[in-house]
Amino acid sequence: MSGLARRRGAKKVVDEDEDGNFSGDSQLDTDMKGLSLDSKKDNAKKQETTEPYLTLLEEVLLVGLKDKEGYLSFWNDNISYALRGLILIELALRNKIRMINDPARKRFELPDRLIEVVDTTLTGETLLDEALKLIKNDKENLSVLSWVDLLSGETWNLMKINYQLKQVRERLAKGLVDKGVLKTEHKNFLLFDMATHPINDPVPKRKITNRILGLLTSRNFIYESDEKYYPDTLDWKYLRAVILVCGCSAANVLENVLVDVNFDARDQAFVRSEELLENFNDFPFTNKSSKSGLGMNLMSEIDKEVDQHPGFEMNLEVVAAVIFIFSKMDTII
């Protein structure tokens, strides 16, 4: 894990014009005009898919949240760091950031490879947009691990201490209140009052729980769609399910889903979660030997999703890099 300790910077390889838009050289512009037909096809393809109603961050928070009490465990030290990693994954899946496509990058472990901004269009999700602006405005290209550390406040660099995203869990909960998933209540804890956010709409958490259980306990994973929260047109729905499990494992909230599962199935589910962390912590994704025999159709479905997104390899390297960090959480927290 020595590679995770490295911190590197490099000059930006993407230029910005006066309006804050990214542009290449004139030859690239000429080439792009000649690809107008392909662009139309890409736009049509984008219209066929939809962005998720709930982000991966919100899903992991819901898994960790106590339904009636409306707050997270006070003893969970992992979830904050895991949420910062999921921010980078969300930005990568939405094609906002990607790994810099430099052949020399392969000398380094995935978390130590540098990322760049490719699209500055805001997502409408406050935390994602705040992180995107920080990455865009930084004068250096930093590594995936460096950004997870900076967004978490894990840095000795006083010049970048203000990069830490503040009150992430509370802001996520308030966002879920705005989306109708949670509600706000106030409870008295000894000497002070605290805002809590119990479940208001049980459907999303039930869907999330069923998806995790299906991925960890079923021989074949069947995606359960929902017209509002998880439509059939959802982009990267199978890969997102894997990331959800990896994020819950890293955030130390996976056990919340498995409390009602019998001992043998629960033990097997944890084995399967470790397999997913191992299979998806590198890119291209590989289906390494499985001892659990679960989710036999998963890799083929994800391969289809990858094939539907040509030229997305550098984005998926960011995803794999964060999952690599998740798989080593015990050594870096």
From TrEMBL:
Give the GO terms filed under biological process for this record. Answer: Golgi organization; Golgi to plasma membrane protein transport; Golgi vesicle budding; retrograde vesicle-mediated transport, Golgi to endoplasmic reticulum
Where in the sequence does UniProt note compositional bias of the Basic residues kind? 1-11
InterPro entries hit by this protein? GPP34-like (IPR008628), GPP34-like_sf (IPR038261)
**Where's it found, cell-wise?**
Golgi apparatus membrane
Please provide the record's keywords in A-Z order: Golgi apparatus, Lipid-binding, Membrane
User: In terms of domain of life, where is this protein from?
Assistant: Eukaryota
Question: Is Signal set as a keyword in this record?
Answer: no
A Pfam family annotated for this UniProt entry: GPP34
List the membrane topology term(s).
Peripheral membrane protein
Gene3D superfamilies in alphabetical order: yeast vps74-n-term truncation variant domain like
- According to its UniProt record, where is this protein mainly located? Golgi
What name is this protein filed under?
Vacuolar protein sorting-associated protein 74
